[in-house]
Amino acid sequence: MAENDLQYLAELAAQLRVDSVRAAAAAGSGHPTSSMSAADLMAVLFARHLRYDFEQPDNPANDHVILSKGHASPLLYSLYKAAGVIGDEELLTSRRRGSRLEGHPTPRLPWVDVATGSLGQGLPVGVGVAMAGRLERMPYRVWVLCGDSELAEGSIWEAAEHAGGEGLANLTAIVDVNRLGQRGPTRHGWDTGAYARRFSAFGWHTIEIDGHDPGEIDYALQDAGKTRRRPTVILAKTRKGEGVLEVENREGAHGKPLKDADQAVDELGGPRDVRVTVRKPDETAEPYRFDSGPLEPPAYEVGEQVATRTAYGEALAALGAARGDVVALDGEVADSTKTEAFAQRFPERFFEMYIAEQQLVAAAVGMQIRGWTPYAATFAAFLTRAHDFIRMAGVSRASIRLIGSHAGVSIGEDGPSQMGLEDLAMMRALYGSTVLYPCDANQTASLIIEMAGVEGVSYLRTTRGSTPVIYPPGERFPVGGSRVLRQSSGDRATIVAAGVTVHEALAAAGELETSGVPVGVIDLYSVKPVDSAVLVEAATTTGNLITVEDHRLEGGLGDAVLDAVSELGPRVVKLAVTELPGSAKPEEQLADAGIDRRAIVEAVKRLL
Q: Locate the Transketolase-like pyrimidine-binding domain: which residues (predicted)?
């Protein structure tokens, strides 16, 4: 590399350090030292290797840069300033109320693909973006800047194994090995070889460099771009707080502004006005998309016995035929979730993610960045392992569709380790989420199709066992709706149920009617958002609500109902799973949990 190029890169990196110090000082908080260690790495990437059109952030040929170590946001914002897309005045609003330059990056900025800051997530999401690049036959590259501390996260190694196994050559991880974490040294310190051996075992091309040498960085990035059939990891030995003696390679300086920012700026050579011209993509190719056709959803006859998980698989396959943007991901349980119906018809759009639920969700987030419509399925119980990824998907305002099968005690003999009993509460608590729980096959098929147009994180819960079809085919079930299945002017109470307990509620209502106690029944298939109008009407006309759910007492259907009507003051009795189940037949499980038809009848009689 020419001497003037080396000098330019050194000046650009120095400016990034200066601006990181200034931004943190203006905010009175932040992570300047974590930004300073990676300044050379990102300066070379932006100046010589990145292909990105800042004027058209939606250009499908753009590379993708993911800041997995999201706390180093001052570095990212300083890069945006150097690229000319934000000004110095905005840079100094970082971390302030109303600023789009948040403490950790979010897609509020048009050049940010995904919210980061919960460590160990950027690389798994990058895997999903790289998978999308292969699917859509685009030449873009995915660059992920990781910190060495986050390499202790299991999700990093889920990503490493998947990327290595799939040979994602369009993916490069750049690891800022600065030796120091939040409270002290990292596990392996500056032993880049320890990390190299691990990545190499997963099939990665590994490069170890001095992360403050622009020439070495440039060579490594160039080598990554030429590598075929496997991803690349660049392990860069750096010094935290590089360039300022007060904090350079010193413990106790993480996550706080420098004590004397002005002195630090002077030590770094003072403010500069260096600009970086990021090269735009060379190609204007459009992403490949699959053909779309007519929508022919499955239809089930009233009275049939069909598991809602079966209806999910068949409906998803029908949706895949109608929409070429739909992709399916599964956690090695496709025969149980019934995603296999989609996989058999559209193998190129089906992705086996194995027993790695964090990577499962992260890949879905990555693929939706590229405009795909992902459905990701596993057992409802196992989605709890990926909760932080789902939470961060909400922060990213990512549109993903999650399917949790084998929910509740009604799965039967498998016992409590397999029972999703907390999933409704978990999903309801997410920002902007949608939570659906169908009771029959036709309702399931309708909701699966409906989910394709839902923004944000949406979740649909399916049941293992077969249940009666009660709705005719072709009916639409909008998000936020409900169905009143029984109602009369003489109703003395209303039973509110969803999923498997709808059938128990109907049976209980029939038994109560024969004994002269008329009650209404509401199928609250949309648990979030709920149909508040229907619930308010029931609360004001009968004054007595009984909720029944195959879920824990806390945070599920009952609490959703209570939230909607609490100000009206009706009596609300919540039937839910309160004990730790064992192994038993499905009907025995429902009885033991106190959520079967007999328990509902007894609850109504006690209430009245």
A: 306-469
> Which residue is it, tokens 């939040």?
182
- Whether pLDDT at 98 is above 90: yes
Asked if 19 and 101 touch (Cβ cutoff 8 Å), the reply is no
* Annotation says 357 is catalytic: yes
**C-beta of residue 521 within 8 angstroms of C-beta of residue 494:** yes
Which CATH fold would you assign to the domain 6-268?
Answer: Rossmann fold (3.40.50)
If 0-12 CB within 10 Å is exposed, 13-18 middle and 19+ buried, where does residue 294 land? exposed
Q: How far apart are the C-alpha atoms of 333 and 310, rounded to whole Å?
A: 13
CATH among 3.40.50.150, 3.40.50.2000, 3.40.50.970, 3.20.20.70 for 304-469: 3.40.50.970
Per-residue model confidence as pLDDT tens digits over 169-220: 999 999 999 999 999 999 999 999 999 999 999 999 999 999 999 999 999 9
* Three-state secondary structure call for residue 175: strand
Pairwise CA distance, residues 357 & 426, whole Å: 15
**Cα 94 from Cα 87, distance rounded (Å):** 12
Name the pLDDT band for 589 (thresholds 50, 70, 90): very high
Q: Which residue is listed with tokens 């753009």? A: 62
Looking only at the bridges linking them, the beta strands covering 494-497 and 544-552 are: parallel
C-alpha count within 13 angstroms, C-beta hemisphere, residue 571: 12
Q: Does domain 483-607 have CATH number 3.30.420.10?
A: no
The separation between CA 399 and the C-alpha centre of its own chain, rounded to angstroms, equals: 8
Torsion 477-401-328-324 (CA) sign: positive
- Catalytic-role residue among 150, 267, 314, 357: 357
- CA–CA distance, 143 with 116 (Å, rounded to integer): 14
